[in-house]
Amino acid sequence: MSNYHIKHLEEYYQVYRKSIREPENFWEEIAGEHFLWRKKWDNVLSWDFKKPEVKWFEGAKLNITENCLDRHLATRGDKTAIIFEPNNPNEPAEHITYWQLYKRVNKFANVLKSQGIEKGDRVCIYLPMIPELAVAVLACARIGAIHSVVFAGFSSTALATRINDSNCKMVVTSDGSYRGAKTIDLKGIVDEALEQCDSVKTVLVAKRINSEISMKSGRDYWLQPLLDEASDEGKAEVMNAEDPLFILYTSGSTGKPKGMVHTTGGYMVYSAYTFKNAFQYRDGDVYWCTADIGWITGHSYIVYGPLANGATTVMFEGVPSYPDFGRFWEIIQKHKVTQFYTAPTAIRALAKHGAELIESFDLSSLKVLGSVGEPINEEAWHWYNDNVGKRKSPIVDTWWQTETGGIMITPIPYVTPTKPTYATLPFIGIQPALMDEKGEELKGNQVEGRLCIKFPWPGMARTIWGNHDRYRDTYFSAYEDKYFTGDGALRDEVGYYRITGRVDDVIIVSGHNLGTAPIEDAINEHPAVAESAIVGFPHDVKGNALYGYITLKDEGESRDQNNLRKEINHLISERIGPIAKLDKIQFTTGLPKTRSGKIMRRILRKIAEKNTDSLGDTSTLLNPDCVQEIIDNAL
Ligand code: 6R9
After folding, report:
1. What is the interface pTM, i.e. ipTM, of the complex?
2. Does ligand 1 lie within 6 Å of residue 374's CB atom?
3. In this protein, which residues make up the domain named AMP-binding enzyme C-terminal (predicted)?
4. How far is Cα 452 from Cα 431, in angstroms, rounded to an integer?
5. Ligand 1 mean position, distance from CA 119 (Å)
6. Which residue among 72, 89, 175, 375 has its CA within the 20 to 30 Å range from the CA of 482?
């Protein structure tokens, strides 16, 4: 019998040791005993971090939706799979059973097929958090099409870049979306994006806000009439374990977004096994992750992980602040949520509006609290623990990435003693390493360095879509035979890990990864801008906010600065999305540069943090004089 469900600390250590000593035996047992395969593997694992190439369960055949849907029908067909909680609290929640979800997925899958989508085709899904989003994802998986979900807060340019990068044949969207008191014209954004995308032949449009939109004949189709006509039965495509399941874009420190490719078998096993343990999910629990399915957290821990375990998962369309900051607590009370998984940025925003709002709600159903997306600061950790968990629900601070597919370092609730701001111990099967500046692994405890992973795990991304060299260069070239995460971390005296943050030019704003380069590219498009540099600075709600240093061309000097600021932020919104807007914009006559011409962001970061005492030696710069000017005019 495998250890699918870890129940106490001794068991964790024992299973962890087994997973490290005999990884293949370990994962073979987990995969063999808890999942449905059409054919089992010929080989559990083959890997080479130099190429890099990783294959799990090679030769196996399966369909992930048979694991998420079909196999539950006999035992829990009438159990709620998804609870849909709409943006408007007065609109009734929808409870979708496993049977209903199965039928809806089959219908959608049949529509995809009738529209010419075949195994291996890419389908871009640009939808708000409505049931159609989960259904569309599963429908793609059902027929072996590769889904590429793009977060519906991205701009038309960002959407177009992602559609073109993977040559999507179809876009699934809606007439619009609700976001608190606002509506967003999603279809309009898609139309704009598609002016730049030749690969898209079909657009399926779900009706959500009943707005007037234009439909391009021969390309755009309303979804519902097609679904109404489609059969609710259908066989799942038989996939190879290493066939791509989805592409999900994540920001790099430079260049265009990286389309991380996840494959079928390993991702399924890893997302499901981590879900079960990191949240201690038990039958009857109601689990709620507040992320959007447009991010990896939503893929693994709203859709695939929960459904593969036959769980009930809540999908929330709205925002924490609408109609007021009590909304989350109201939802927890209403659906008797047992596991609640959110981000530090949301916790800080909620804390700002006071714990009093919580008092009028009954949160006694809660058993586990989760945090993900960025380091959780001590204050937020305690606020969450005291006010939401009432000091009796352990907080799982789960560290992981789009690239890792699932949770990598986390406490297991009721198993691992927690410690504020610490993600604590590696998950089963995960072998972290901390590296020093010389590229040597730091052994022992009480060390701090760059976080790498030494051995493959089933959920890891296999490549970057269309650019395997970039995959190798980004993740496998910094340290020999190791996956480099881009994060720094420390290991304390008992071996607990604390993630200290990114060590590259990725800035995490409200839990969203933003690369500095694409933002600077957007700013530099402004005709008055000569050059720009973006850094992060601490923000009490967002974690980090963006500070832009911008030098203007001569003709820009005479322009009104506040107008320029507005125009620049508008440009960023258009090119990337509102999440990338700058909180502070300082115009300067120069940016500090090294002799080789590299902008010294380290100095700019310190100035933005108002930490100018430790700037270090600036005399070796190409243009040391500009530093004082920047300090004098800092915002
Ligand atoms: C799942 C997700 C990945 C980056 C990662 C790290 C940061 C995520 C964290 C955390 C500290 C945690 N991060 N969880 N930092 N503690 N519990 O967020 O994926 O959007 O790809 O971001 O987020 O810096 O490298 P993704």
Report:
1. 1.00
2. yes
3. 519-598
4. 9
5. 31
6. 375
500: how many CB neighbours lie within 10 A of its CB? 16
Q: Of 162, 163, 175, 231, which Cα lies nearest the Cα of 205?
A: 175
Nearest CA to ligand 1 atom 16: 375
Ligand 1 pocket member 397 (CB < 6 A): yes
Instruction: Identify which of 301, 400, 460, 514 to mutate to test ligand 1's pocket (most ligand atoms within 8 A of the CB).
Output: 400
Q: What is the dihedral of CA 41, 43, 47, 52, to 10 degrees?
A: -50
Q: How does 536-558 read in b/e, with b if 16+ C-beta sit within 10 Å? A: bbebebbbbbbbbbbbbeeebee
Read off the DSSP letter of residue 37: -
Atom of ligand 1 nearest to the CA of 397: 17
Taking the centre of ligand 1 as the mean of its atom positions, its distance from the CA of residue 505, in whole angstroms, is 14
Q: Which of 300, 372, 402, 427 gets mutated to test ligand 1 (max ligand atoms within 8 A of its CB)?
A: 372
Those residues of the chain that have pLDDT short of 50 are none
Q: What is the pLDDT of residue 1?
A: 61
C-beta of 423 in contact with ligand 1 (< 6 A): yes
β partners of residue 370: 341, 396
For residues 23 and 429, is the Cβ–Cβ distance under 8 A? yes
Q: Which residue's C-alpha comes closest to atom 22 of ligand 1?
A: 401
Q: What is the pLDDT of residue 98?
A: 98
Rounded Cα distance between 422 and 497, Å, is 6
The answer to whether the CB of 271 is under 6 A from ligand 1 is: no
Q: Strands, DSSP E only, in 68-127?
A: 80-85, 94-97, 122-125
Query: Closest Cα to atom 7, ligand 1: which residue?
Result: 374
Q: Is the CB of 399 under 6 A from ligand 1?
A: yes
> Which residue is closest in CA terms to ligand 1's atom 4?
401
Angle between helices 156-165 and 186-194 (to 10 degrees): 50
For residue 590, the 8-state DSSP code is -
**pLDDT tens, residue by residue, 59-85:** 999 999 999 999 999 999 999 999 999
Q: How far is the CA of 546 from the centre of ligand 1 (A)?
A: 18
Tell me how crowded residue 386 is: count the other CB atoms within 10 A of its CB.
11
- Per-residue DSSP letters for 216-265? -TTTEEEHHHHHHHS-S--PPPPEETTSEEEEEEE--SSSSPEEEEEEHH
Cα 583 to Cα 569: distance, rounded to the nearest angstrom: 9
Distance (Å, whole) CA 546 – CA 309: 39
Q: In angstroms, rounded to a whole number, what is the distance separating the alpha carbons of residues 449 and 361?
A: 43
Chain centroid to Cα 390, Å, comes to 28
